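Input record (one chain):
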Amino acid sequence: MRSVHFRDLGLIDYAEAWDMQTRLFQATIDRKLANRNLPTEDQQATEDHLLFCEHPHVYTLGKSGMQSHLLLNEEGLRAKSVQFFPIDRGGDITYHGPGQLVGYPIFDLDQHFTDIHRYLRTLEEAIIGTLETYGIKAGRITGQTGVWIDEAEPLKARKICAFGIRASRWVTMHGFAFNVNTDLAYFGHIIPCGIADKGVTSLAKELGREVDMGEVKDRLKMELANLFDVELVG
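The corresponding structure, as predicted from the sequence alone:
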């Protein structure tokens, strides 16, 4: 069973977390490239990492997104005390903030499965399984990455977890943003993920109460470990 190094970073500035995962991502790629020039007995195994955190209020725009989906100008961002970062993941614009569980898996998919579609579906399945433990049925919408409530009813469908990743040489970074106790008002200043006709929700909103974040983290860690057949250490 492959080990994954787990760290809970708590509340951390977005740029600091981005820099941390970028260093881990690049170190994994560098090790893979170095191994290509070494005999098998001298090659060093790559390491997988999983970072959990929350961020202060921030909007991030993926490389395929449109800046017009941010509905605040610079003055508006300052007034709301929200940062804004165009970043190197896929997807469009999203929000991160306190009460949202953000996960950054830095995985060498050569050690799991070399299939990005399957990787995203596995991450989604971990969120779906976590929600099931709270009595919430969630699913997917064809062609729209993410986890949704009432996904089969277009007028009621609402996203509870967004995904956006970057991959190079089968190494991943960035990941998911799971609305647990998130202040959903901040989504009103963007077109979330570029989807104008569907809403967003949180676990707290669906249950009608605040949720213990530590409990959610423990459950999600279990789901990820089982689905990827790994042991989380650290």
